[in-house]
């Protein structure tokens, strides 16, 4: 067993994407700032990182992301207005986003893929393991996936990815893993990774989702990784290389098979589903919203209820 010598304290969150699936809404607004109920999607991700003990957050940004930076900064005029009105409830909610953690920013520049975005964090991360969190995946706070991954990395070393079981016909939408059983239930060893394989060529139906805990050795691998699928530097390709490297060189990849609650905001239909699910479970909104939703669905013509 390879015992890491340094604990994970930093999270890298790539947010440089253009969000083209949500146009025209994302023409001037970053997709990470689209609201999921009453918080921007990216705030859920930052809260998850901080909840797992990672308070040093690096956003890898691009152009037109100033509203994201403003969200995690002070809003003096708004705070003063809420204070003057005595609206302590909303004032506390506004202030929460600016005290979540120690937040930093670096610009990606050329959009050369997720692997390149991660590589942009090398100087900030240094020589310690770190987390990478993608904003399209929201993990329910009742299912602490990231905390489990950090624990696995602390005990075994190497890198750790998160996998979910998907319909075999949908593996072409994900990075897909070949695995062998480990010593623990739902903790497996990754032997191979394929980015968006054809269903007939996929090594399994275990798909990578947007949570990673990586050894800093990934940076040297990424620097030597040529562009792959789509002409981009793929993080999946670098992880495949790491999986075949010896442990004393920072190699080895394990995976946590996640069976908890995950909300996908990566396309319009999944975004709507996630918003409805999260709103339905809110104590302040859920009872009235669920009642309205039942009535609305019951009022639809039979062919629209299917």
Automatic annotation (TrEMBL):
Name of the top EC class for this enzyme: transferase
Biological-process GO terms, alphabetical: UDP-alpha-D-glucose metabolic process
Gene3D superfamilies membership: Spore Coat Polysaccharide Biosynthesis Protein SpsA, Chain A
Chain ranges passing through the membrane: none
Family: Belongs to the UDPGP type 2 family.
Source species taxonomy: Bacteria, Bacillati, Actinomycetota, Actinomycetes, Jiangellales
Enzyme nomenclature, EC number: 2.7.7.9
Organism: Phytoactinopolyspora halotolerans
UniProt xrefs under PANTHER family: UTP--GLUCOSE-1-PHOSPHATE URIDYLYLTRANSFERASE
Molecular function terms from GO: UTP:glucose-1-phosphate uridylyltransferase activity
Catalytic reaction list: alpha-D-glucose 1-phosphate + UTP + H(+) = UDP-alpha-D-glucose + diphosphate
Keywords: Nucleotidyltransferase, Transferase
Nucleotidyl transferase domain boundaries: 10-274
One of the Pfam families matching this protein, by short name: NTP_transferase
Protein name: UTP--glucose-1-phosphate uridylyltransferase
